[in-house]
Amino acid sequence: MSQGTLYDKVWDRHKVADLPNGQDQLFIGLHLIHEVTSPQPFSELRERGIEVPYPERNVATVDHIVPTRPEGRERPLADESAEGMLTALERNTSEAGIQFYGLDSEKQGITHVVAPELGLTQPGMTVVCGDSHTATHGAFGAIAFGIGTSQVRDVLASQCVAADKADVRRIEVDGTLGPGVHSKDLILKIIAELGVDGGVGYVYEYGGEAVHDLSMEERLAVCNMSIEGGARAGYINPDETTYEFLRGREFAPEGEAFEERKAYWESISSDADAEYDDVVHLDADDLEPMVTWGTTPGQAVGIGERVPAPEDLPEGKREAARTAQEHTGVTPGERMAGYDIDVAFLGTCTNGRVSDFREAAAVLEGREVHDDVRALAVPGSQTVKSKLEAEGVDEIFRAAGFDWREAGCSMCLAMNDDSLEGDERCASSSNRNYVGRQGSKDGRTVLMSPAMVAAAAVAGEVTDVRDLGVVA
Amino acid sequence: MKVRRVAGTGVPVRGDDIDTDQIIPARFLKTTTWEGLDEYAFYDARRDDDGELNDHPFNEYKGANVLVVNDNFGCGSSREHAPRALARWGVEAIVGESFAEIFADNCKSLGIPAATTDAETVEELQTFIEENPDAGIELDVVDETVTYDGKTVDVDIDEAMRGALVQGIWDTVALLRSNMDAIDETAADLPYVDSR
């Protein structure tokens, strides 16, 4: 087992007890709540007469089911089931005394966008949410992981989960990301290399020069997709980038208290001589923009590489590759550049932050979305939206022909009105390309960075953003 | 309730990396209860474009309770609706090559053992069920074995899962709340939790 890592130290600080089933009881510093995985737990607590013991360590917002068209957000929502879920969350959080950022709040948005930007997520915390992309918060040097609904109930009832300690794999990325290459490309490369189940039993510690050089927003995108590599959590040791991001945020400590807290943050970082269960090296220098050709996030290649022939893959991966290529309609041996696109989707907990839209806007400025493409820009939070509007970034999107929306999960999983139709092909900044993920079982999703989505939107096909002469 | 063995008949669902969106598509999660989820288990694979049932195993092996799957089953979204939908359909145990972690945790929370074994054994088991849909299959959680076709093969069940199921302590609420004082002590020792 690992020793002296951030994971070990934070785990030890939060361990409450050894449980008779062999698991550890872990205190949860921040529990994020949304409308999809919380109604049943609150009902069960009510039935059992249990009160939430630490309401102040829980925060809720609404994201999965919210309409993103401004005119669709009036209450009651047109979709009765969505309205029912929102109403339940309002009632549940109000009765339990839990902070809720609802549709009427200017801070509403995707849980994994909202918590970082409010300074709720901090280094050395344990963070859980009934959503697999909770891994996002590891970017701060927190242990953050997704849980099921029964565990949501456990956290509400005790502020704890029963958990098994995982092994720690250090992913050391040397070198520097080139122009037009982003952290999304880096994480897609990691998943393509290690496999979609390569991280099962591990948490990933990302480090090395290329990771150190990433901004907080870029780090959030990397940690967000840890789960797509099978690792339930991923983290980056906190450093000056982390501290500077937190300074002045609503829930971050101020003044002297900030410096005191910083001492804790520094103390939980992995030791220089920390022992890892596994170490993997990667070089960022040769990395190019990545795109998926199949139906898992691991079926990805560089934009200049050729789509593999199933018979060239290891035996266990051939059948899945054949099925995937039949679904996506790609031809082995070809490059993904030139793959026709019907929809461009920018947003989500992976790439719905301010810098993501700025990068895409740099590509879109002075250009227009291709006639055959419908293009959606969905900010990850209302805060992201208002910031971009203050900068005039929304104007670039609108002028290019993008539909500029309100915050939500939108077409990432299509629990609202935003959805692929028929066998549409989507250039997407989201995290999953599984069959049916974007709301149509015949729809095709090609994962890529925000800059690459913008390039695809303009060209009407998958395109190397670097060929557009923009260093976004 | 203790879960020591599950006996019944099998249902094979073939394919690697079957994610929870395929087990239950997101559009069916718009509910505040667990009612009726069985309708939506593997919905998109179970029905053709006109909504008619096709030849998916979940349409053909009604009454089965031991699901046999391949590699990395239940990856993707953390939604507990996925194992809940399988359970409501009738699944009481799952045997597969491997499971995504959150999915396996969710199975444990529901008292559904998720046992793993090698690809060859899974293949044999799936083929056996396809050829003998009415034949009995038994998963022994205590001994970590699957018995079918007159033979017994070893399987693995995660230790925490096995312990919880065999001892009947997979409802963790009471377990966690029995340590309330220790919870408060741990919290009080954390620099970011306000003293109370």
Characterize the largest beta sheet of chain B: strand count, sense, and whether it forms a barrel.
7 strands, mixed
Tell me the structural class of chain A. Answer: alpha/beta
- Mean pLDDT figure of chain A: 97
In whole angstroms, how far apart are the ends of chain B?
A: 37 Å
The amount of helix of chain A comes to 25-40%
Describe this structure in words.
In chain A, 33% of the residues lie in helices and 17% in strands. Chain A has helices at residues 6-14, 39-48, 80-96, 111-118, 149-158, 183-194, 209-212, 216-224, 240-246, 255-267, 315-328, 348-351, 354-364, 382-391, 393-400, 450-459; strands at 15-18, 24-27, 30-33, 58-61, 99-101, 126-129, 143-146, 160-163, 167-174, 202-207, 233-235, 278-283, 290-292, 300-302, 343-347, 374-378, 403-404, 425-428, 444-447. In chain A, strand 3 (30-33), helix 2 and strand 4 (58-61) form a beta-alpha-beta unit. Chain A starts with 5 loop residues before the first helix and ends in a 13-residue tail after the last helix. The mean pLDDT of chain A is 97. Chain B has 196 residues and is an alpha/beta fold. Chain B contains nine helices and seven strands. In chain B, strands 4-3-2-1-5-6-7 form a seven-stranded mixed sheet. In chain B, strand 6 and strand 7 form a beta hairpin. In chain B, helix 4 (81-89) crosses helix 5 (101-110). The longest helix of chain B is centred in the middle third of the chain and has 13 residues, at 119-131. The radius of gyration of chain B is 19 Å and the shape is globular. Chain B starts with a strand and ends in an 8-residue tail after the last helix. The mean pLDDT of chain B is 95. The interface between A and B is large, with 79 and 61 residues.
